[in-house]
Amino acid sequence: MARRGRWAVVCAAAVLVLVGCGQRQSQYSPDFATARDLPEGLSADGTTITVGDPHTPVTVHLYEDPRCPYCEELETTGGGPQLQEAMLQRSVRTEYTLASFLDGRVGGTGSKKAVNALRAALEEGKFVEYHELLYDNEPDESVDGYTDAYLLELAGRVKGLRGLESDAAVRSMKYRSFVPFAQLLRDIHDSPGEWQDTKLSPT
After folding, report:
1. Each residue's pLDDT tens digit, 21-80
2. In angstroms, rounded to a whole number, what is the distance separating the alpha carbons of residues 56 and 33?
3. Ranges for the Thioredoxin-like fold domain (predicted)?
C-alpha cells in the first residue's frame, strides 16, 4: 500500500508538471467545449485507449486499475481535473492502459469487468464520460463492487450509453481479450529495463 501511495503522489505531481509544459497545438484550433467532445479511440496495437487531440505534441500515459483507490485519488483530486482541462485546451492528449491486477491481489473479478465495460463504452464514444463516472463512484477496493448490475447502473447515467448491444457487451464480457492484453502491457511497464519513455502509473 505504501508503495502505491508514493506512486500516487509522484504521479499526480508529474501530471501537473506535464500539463504545465503543454502548449496549445494551434492558435487556430478552438478548445473542445466539454469532455464528451474529446476525440477517443484505440491504439494500433489494441491495448491502449487514447483521448484528446491526436496532433497534440505532449502525451501523458496512465496505467490504471478501476478498483485502485490511488487511481481514484489521481483522477478525482490529484491531477485528473487539470489533465482534463489541458485536453480540452488541446495542450495534452492522454493514453490509458487499463489493468486488472487488484483482482488477483484482493480477489474477485471487478477490475476485469470494469475494464471490459470501459472498452464497451469506447465503442459507443462514451469512454471519457464513463471513465470519469466510474472513478467518481468507485467501491472500496476490498469489496468486489463492480458487478454487471452496478456497471450497467452507472452506464445508465451516461446519455446514450445504455442499449442492447452495449448492455450485452458488459454482461457477456465481449471484450475479455482486451483485458489481458492491456494487463500484459502494464506488467511490461513494471519490469526492470522496460522504460522507453515517460510512463505514469498511480499504482
Report:
1. 555 554 557 899 999 999 999 999 888 999 999 999 899 989 899 999 999 999 998 788
2. 17
3. 46-151
* Sequence ranges of the domains in the chain: 2-21+44-190
Q: Identify the DSSP state of 16.
A: H
Q: How far apart are CA 201 and CA 97, in angstroms?
A: 9
Residue-by-residue DSSP string for 136-149: HTPPPTTS----HH
Please, what is the angle between helix 127-136 and helix 148-155, to 10°?
A: 120
**Fold of the 2-21+44-190 domain:** Glutaredoxin (3.40.30)
For CA atoms 47, 139, 191, 93, give the dihedral sign. Answer: positive
Query: pLDDT tens, 156-202?
Result: 999 999 999 999 999 999 999 888 876 676 566 555 444 344 344 44
CA–CA dist 52, 166 (Å, integer):
23
